[in-house]
């Protein structure tokens, strides 16, 4: 298997609300898609939104769960200022800030928000992490 993630699909409880959050609120570019799903292009992968019960059925698992899902999505940016901008944009779009952006013990700057379905996003500036396209050399 080649090490890459082609798509991240989130099971959501209200598809239209989630589409509005990601498209209008965060400004992600939406692709044409059937009405029961939404796809957004990311830099090197896609984000999919699909009904939570439908996604569970498709995967052959029980869709009933609550609380912490055991993972977060991360978006690394090139400055602390950009972290603050994205955190504010997410809050304005209806996200709940779970951890305000601040200096980290690993030398960076990061905060967390949760989307309308509680999926956690970390917005981080890591001065030791390359944020350019994956096919470009690091060149720090």
Please tell me about this protein's structure:
- With 140 residues, the protein is of the alpha/beta class.
- The protein has 2 domains: 1-60, 2,3-Dihydroxybiphenyl 1,2-Dioxygenase, domain 1, CATH 3.10.180.10; 71-129, 2,3-Dihydroxybiphenyl 1,2-Dioxygenase, domain 1 (Roll), CATH 3.10.180.10.
- Helix content is 23%, strand content 31%.
- It contains 3 helices and 8 strands, in the order E-H-E-E-E-H-E-H-E-E-E.
- The protein has helices at 15-25, 52-59, 80-92; strands spanning 7-12, 30-31, 37-41, 46-51, 73-77, 96-103, 109-114, 120-125.
- The strands form 2 sheets. A 4-stranded mixed β-sheet has the order 1-4-3-2. Strands 5-8-7-6 form a 4-stranded mixed β-sheet, covered by helices on one side.
- A hairpin with a 5-residue loop joins strand 7 (109-114) and strand 8.
- The longest helix is centred in the middle third of the chain and has 13 residues, at 80-92.
- The protein is globular.
- The two termini are 28 Å apart.
- 18% of the residues are buried.
- The model has no long low-confidence stretch (mean pLDDT 88).
Can I get a quick summary?
The protein is an alpha/beta fold and 140 residues long. It is built from 3 helices and 8 strands, in the order E-H-E-E-E-H-E-H-E-E-E. This is VOC family protein.
């Amino acid at each position: 298997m080649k090490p890459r993630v082609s798509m991240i699909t989130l099971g959501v409880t209200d598809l239209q609300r989630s589409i509005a959050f990601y498209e209008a609120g965060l400004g992600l570019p939406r692709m044409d898609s059937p009405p029961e799903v939404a796809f957004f292009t990311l830099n090197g992968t896609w984000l999919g939104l699909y009904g939570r019960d439908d996604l569970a059925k498709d995967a052959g698992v029980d869709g009933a769960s609550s609380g912490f899902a055991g993972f977060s999505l991360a978006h690394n940016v090139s400055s602390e200022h950009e972290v603050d901008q994205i955190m504010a944009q997410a809050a304005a779009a209806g996200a709940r800030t779970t951890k305000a952006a601040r200096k980290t013990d690993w030398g960076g700057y990061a905060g967390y928000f949760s989307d309308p379905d509680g999926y956690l996003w970390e917005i981080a500036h890591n001065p030791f992490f390359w944020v350019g396209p994956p096919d470009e050399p690091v060149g720090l």
